[in-house]
Amino acid sequence: MLVEGSEDSKTCHENEGSCSPGDLSKQEIEIEPNYMELLQEAVANCKDMQCVLTELITDEFFREDCWETQPVFLHTKPGTFGKGKLTWKTLLDLTDEGLMWGDKGENCIVHPDVKNGTAFKFDARFKGAQMTRQQLEVLKDTIHISSIQAIHRGAAELVLHFQRALGLAANGNVFATKGVKDTPLHTDRAEIFVVQTSGRKRWRVYQPHTQLPVWGVHGDGDWGKNEALPSSLVGDLVLDKILEPGDILYIPRGFPRSATTLPNKKKNERIIDVSIVMHTEGLHLVFEKYMRCALARSGTCDVTELGEKYCPLGRTLTEHTRSEEGKPLRQSLPIGFLSGAKDYWPMFAKKMADTVQSQLAMVLKKADKKGISQEPGLVEKLDSELATVAGRVFETAKADIKVLEEKGWYGNNEDVAFYEKQKHWRYLIKMSGPFQGTYCHENGIEVAFRDYSDADLPLVRLL
């Protein structure tokens, strides 16, 4: 950009001998590109989801400055979602495909009252029963269908696009709302991509009170599930957008959000969005759990030696992770697209080492200041275990995705009831993650986690 009459321009006029003829009255000023606009423009030019996700995962700005850090609004061309563009008619047709009533709190569709077919409440006798089109039509509350990829082929393709592109386990949850309804302030333990397929929905996203919350370190790691998160416990508003069909909103884990559906032009049409849930911290795929597993494997906090006591070094790790300088330990591990390529071990290993080595030194230094004794050779033992656990994380992440794709019944296997598919998928995701069973300790992962409930550990304060 050329600016007339700047101080530099005056200096240039006064010292003409030091300036080229073309620069005598103007000075070149370099302006930083708007990387968010460049990303949004690139995505807006895509014609399908594969292109959209390729733009995201190859964009350095999204990887380094947006992932887990700030929400991102994207607009796509009509038809980008393909068969994953769900409408109210699509959901009604699912009653012919085997949509069933689930347990209360599972797929969150309430159950019909035996005495009155138009009034609905929970009744365990309907669990697993076929849902009729009439029952679905008269529901007034927001309808939540979890694991939509297990019954709808188009939704399955949409979920698989995200899972394969990002290299992270994904799940699809549908929310269908009639009329104007509010979703109270809350947070999640996952990275969420809201895909708007029908109607309009206004989203407000706020700065979190706790950056990158981690289960155990910060209590449950999410807030607002049982009752709305008080507005006094959230930061400044960072995004206020109305999503229309074709829009996508990325919301990082831990960012408080609320939503309001807007009036629909069609009287009986529902406002529908699909939340693509990317599982990271929810599967303990963060640096803090990685270091904690290595501590447990090293025998530093062996339960057979300590009995019922808590591990001082484990408690120090928790306190450090809560601090500002321990924030890198709350980040998700560099698996999938975060390693540059899904199977590129050198980049994965370097990112793991760059983060953990400096953080481990800080934790041990804090422990030393507290007078916590450390056995000889501890650093060497931990270095060895960290390398071993890193290999486990790298291989397990790929293996879990493979199992989900081979056994997840994505929109197929009509012989299996939808309710059973939901249960099966939840079982598969529950068994995912590298820190299962006795890998971290022969007495189970609870040994590594027990320091979270240490009575001497200060309670998590939201502000």
Secondary-structure blueprint of this entry?
Elements: E1 2-4, H1 7-14, E2 26-28, H2 35-44, H3 49-57, H4 60-66, E3 72-75, H5 88-93, H6 133-138, E4 143-145, H7 153-166, E5 170-177, E6 182-186, E7 191-198, E8 201-206, E9 237-243, E10 247-251, E11 257-261, E12 271-278, H8 287-298, H9 303-306, H10 312-322, H11 345-369, H12 378-407, H13 418-430, H14 446-449
Helix pairs in contact: 2-3, 3-7, 8-12, 10-11, 11-12
Tag the structure with descriptive keywords.
463 residues; alpha+beta; six-stranded antiparallel beta sheet; four-stranded antiparallel beta sheet; 12 strands; globular; disordered N terminus
Could you please describe the fold and organization of this structure?
The structure is a single chain. The chain is an alpha+beta fold. It is built from 14 helices and 12 strands. A 6-stranded antiparallel beta sheet has the order 3-10-7-12-5-4. Strands 6-11-8-9 form a 4-stranded antiparallel beta sheet, with no helix packed on it. The longest helix has 30 residues, at 378-407. It is globular and about 70 Å long. The protein starts with a strand and ends in a 14-residue tail after the last helix.
